[in-house]
Amino acid sequence: MSASTHAASPPPRKPRLVCPAGSLRALTLAIDAGADAVYMGLKDATNARNFAGLNFDLAQARDGIAYARSRGREVLMALNTFADARAPGRWFTAVDAAAGLGIDALICADTAVLAHARDHHPQLRLHLSVQASATTQEAIEFYRERYGIRRAVLPRVLTLSQVEQVCRHSTVEIEVFGFGSLCVMVEGRCALSSYATGQSPNTAGVCSPPSAVRWEDGAGGVSARLNGVLIDRYAPDEPRGYPTLCKGRFDVDGTRDYALEEPTSLNTLSLLPQLMDMGIAAIKIEGRQRSPAYVEQVTRVWRAAIDDCAAQPSRFAVQPEWTAALGRWAEGQQHTLGAYDRPWR
Amino acid sequence: MTTARPASLSASLPALPPPPAALRRLIARLPVHPPSLLLAAALNRTLRPRLPDDAAAALAGHTVEIEVRDFGVRLRLALRDGRFHSAPDHGPVTLRIAADAASYLRLLRGNDDADRLFFERALVMEGDTEYGLLLKNTLDAIGPLLHWPAPPR
Amino acid sequence: MNTRIALTVGPVLYYWPRRTLLDFYAEVAESPADTVVLGEVVCSRRHEMKADDWLSLGRELAACGKEVVLASQALLESAADLRAMHRWADQPAFLVEAGDASALRALAGRPFVLGPHINVYSEPALREHAALGAIRWVAPVELGLDALALINPPAAPVAGGPGADTPIATEVFAFGRLPLAFSARCFTARHFHLNKDDCGFRCIEHPDGLLLDTTEGQPFLALNGIQTQSAAQHCLIADAPALRAAGVRRARLSPTAQHFGTVTALFDSVYNSGADALAAAAELDALSLPGGLVNGYAHRRPGLERMPA
Question: How far A216 CA lies from chain B's nearest CA (Å)?
Answer without folding.
Answer: 6
